[in-house]
Structures are given as C-alpha cells and as structure tokens.
Amino acid sequence: FDELRAFPVSACCAGHQWMVLEARKIAAEAKTTDGITSGSSSNHDDKTIALLNGLGYDEAAKYVYGMHYKDWKARHSKKASDDQMDRFNASKPLWAKHDKKLLEKKLTATESDAQQQQQPSNESKASAGTMPATTKSLQSNVCCQDVPDAPTPAPTSAPPQKKKFRELPPYQPPAPPATDIKISLGVLTVSDRASKGEYETGDLSGPAVEDAVTSCIEGLRKDSPNVQLTNVQKKIVPDDKSAIQGAIEQWANEDGDAGGVNVILTSGGTGFALRDITPEATKEMLRHECAGLMSFCTAETSKIQPLAALSRGTSGILNNNRTFIANLPGNPKGVHEIVPYLLPLSLHVLADIQA
C-alpha cells in the first residue's frame, strides 16, 4: 500500500523530467527538419524552438501539479515513516536517471545577449533589494538521481515571500467587568430520550454544561475574583415547545432568593431534525436577541469542529429583562468547546442588565 501511495507522486515527478526532455528533443528535431541549421529558418520556427528550449523543470512541475511545486508540497506532502523510507530507498536501482544539464533552460546567443542587457547591475540589484535572476531549481530527488559527475548548481537563497493577508493574533477573551457578577445558573437539557431515561449513562449534556461553566469561572477568578457562581439548577424536558418554554418561564419568574436564575443555558435541540425546536421556542421569549454572540462562538468553534457551524442556537435577554439565555449543542464535547468563548462575553451582558 505504501508503494502504491508513493507511486502517483513519483509518477508526477518523473513526468516533469520527460516533459522537459521531450521539449528539448522536439526542438533539436525542428532545427534539423526545418533547415534551421542551414540558416534558412523563419521567425516562427525560431520562436517555437525558443519556447521549447525555454521550458524548464519548474514550469513543467507547475503544469503537472496545477500549482507551484513548493505550494503543492506544503499543502499535501506528509513526512514519511522510517519504514516507508526504507522501502523507498530500497527501490533506488529502479529510479530514472536524467542529466540535469539537459533539463536547464537553453537560450540562443541572441537571447542571452538581450537578457544580459536587460539585467541591472549588481549594485542596482542590491539597492533595489531584489534577488538574482537565477534561482535554485525545484527538481526533486524523489524518483530521479543525478547522473555521475553531473554539475550541481550553486545554492541560492529563496526570494522573500510576500504576505497576502494580514495575520491575526490568537483570540483572547475580554477581561471580566469591574463590577461584581454573581451567576445563578439554570441548565436545561432538551431531549426526548433523556427525558424518558432511555440513556444507559443518563443525561451527559447537562452535567457537561455545569462542568464547563465551573471550569471557566475558576479560570476567570484567578485574575477577577469578583465573578462568582452562586447556584446551579438542572432540568430535563422533551423536545416540545410548551415544555421548553414552561421550564424557562418558571426559572425566569422566580425571585432570586426563591431559586430564580439569571443565566439559562439550554443543551440540545439546535440541529435540523423535525423536533429540534429549541431556538424557535427561545426566540419567542426574548426581549432582545443577540444572534451575533452565537454566530461568533460558532465561527470560533467551527475551527475545531467544522460541524459546529451547523448549530442554529441563539441567545439574548428574556422578557423579564434580567435573565440571559443561550442555546448550546447537545454534544458534551461541543459544550466544552463553546463555553470558553460564550461565558466571558456573556458576563458583559449581565453587567449591562444589572446596572
């Protein structure tokens, strides 16, 4: 299997060699058949032969790979294991041998003189910060080895790569608000099967939410001890709008001293199944929706798991104007991935509604 996997790359590499050598062969035959050696060539013939002789290994590699070989290697090449390299090196007797001198671009005397006249002096090159015209070939030794005594081109440094896009620093969560933030948390698991007790392990998403929030707050308290988790309540309801809204309304209408909550995190029902209606049930109870918050959290977590982009969860402030709610995925792993992005930002929402 390893040899078969290496074959397409080796075949492509060998194809570069044969493409260039065939171009040289056709150019040589054209000189003879068209009478160029006798001085009766046309401008058209000269241009054709110049193009054939001007085809280099790098251009052939770009044609075969569909991009520069350096870019292709960075995107697709993987480091071979020791066992793969042992098998690969054992096949050296079968490797094709090409004279790299024949693979170099050829210029006519007229073209060479014209090129020298167009090139700036060494001083002007240095002042302009450009590289010499001759750069190291991209020829690979994957499937070909040098002909004995073949000249080795002098190594030169690669031209600097220009950055096309601005590089952004890693995401850093905002610092918690300066005011005291006390979180009374309600965790609502929305699942038909969990509500019926059909899982052998019991509900896993609800405990995952509590664990993720607790861990996140412990991390925040190292620098901001004014953030506290004072209370956690958990409920499990089926994928039913009235059941979802009933549980949310009960928590939202209770007084803080009587067990009310100021943060509700639902888990589950954010997908595309017929009974996944948690976002719809939530939106009907919002005074202010904050869809951008969940969009941001989803965008960040999709860098870890692309399927996170399919979550339809929303967030916002309930009609009581004192409770923040957000819809999390039902997957416990997804919960642990999204809470570190969601919670630090939601603290600023709580600071606004408590002011």
UniProtKB/TrEMBL annotation:
UniProt source species: Craspedostauros australis
Extent of Polar residues compositional bias: 109-143
Pathway(s) per entry: Cofactor biosynthesis; molybdopterin biosynthesis
Keyword flag Ribonucleoprotein: no
Residue span of region Disordered: 109-167
Keyword annotations of the record: Molybdenum cofactor biosynthesis
Superkingdom of the source species: Eukaryota
Span of domain MoaB/Mog: 186-349
GO biological process, one term: Mo-molybdopterin cofactor biosynthetic process
Protein name per its UniProtKB record: MoaB/Mog domain-containing protein
Lineage: Eukaryota, Sar, Stramenopiles, Ochrophyta, Bacillariophyta
Pfam families reported for this sequence: DUF1244, MoCF_biosynth
Keyword Cytoplasm set for record: no
